[in-house]
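User: Could you check the structure of this?
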Amino acid sequence: MVDQSPFAFLSYRYLLDQGVPMVGNGVDGTYYQQKGNEAILSSGGNGNPFGDLTYDGAARIMKAAGAKKIGALAYGAASSSVASAKALMTYAAPALGLDPVYTNTSIDFGAADVGAPVLGLKNAGADGVYLPMAAATNIAVAQGLQQNAVPMKAVLMGTGYGQDLLDSSAGKSLPDSTIFLAGYKPVEVEDAATKRFQADLKKYADVTGVPDYGMYTGYVLADYTIAALKKAGKDLTRQAFVDGGHGIGQYDAAGLACQPVDVSVGGLGRVPSTTCGWALKLVNDKFQLFPKSGKPFTQKLVGSPEALAANKSGLAATTTTAAPAPAS
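Assistant: Sure, the predicted structure tokens are below.
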């Protein structure tokens, strides 16, 4: 089972009970890391923090853009969205000297009516906001802030990068403060891996232009699944597939990662202390790397002392879902 849904955590237990291996991208819960769940494979390796652990990259980008008072919005029904927003506000923002002024983790999934949280951000005096939600909701927030004349330094989107945005009227009206995070190498880097990615999309799916988040994650999931099948050998069994997936050791996400991720069994429960990513802005209807050098930014793992200690010892927190929090 290959599953890139943010709701994969709702089905993994059934698959485990049936002895069916699952491959996901590792961002929707910590169950990938739990002992006994080795048949749940993550193309993102052991590098996806959850719960009381997060990377400070989003806060670093907002600070670099000049933001000082920040907010975060998240879908209440998506645990990965909630956990990302809460951890950023609780740990990453204070660690970098930013003031977390507004958090709302009860946004309806896929919502386009975001008037209330936009007003909440305005009343709180936020000049930066982190949006780990679907592109439609993120864009609605950015437009709402613009329409309400809220002076923002950074509207940071976890998704939205892609050709669909460039072709839309919404993309042409987004404010200059809009910044897109990219966990995988943007095609604007124009190296061998991104050129191969785009060539494969053209050849097998007749897709051209800038790939979006779903295309990236789907491509990487497919690449990892194929690599695991090859590692399993010709006498394929479910266990051989699981062993093959973990046996890859260090996986480079089809060359699209800024650093290889650990997919081994021995690395379960340990999130790297540093990782990296990219950020982009819209300039003249094109995505432009931010900063212009195109170099990936480095981000540091932050969190509660207990979670950091558990991670260091290989006993990562085991929270699989996170309850929605009220707006503050």
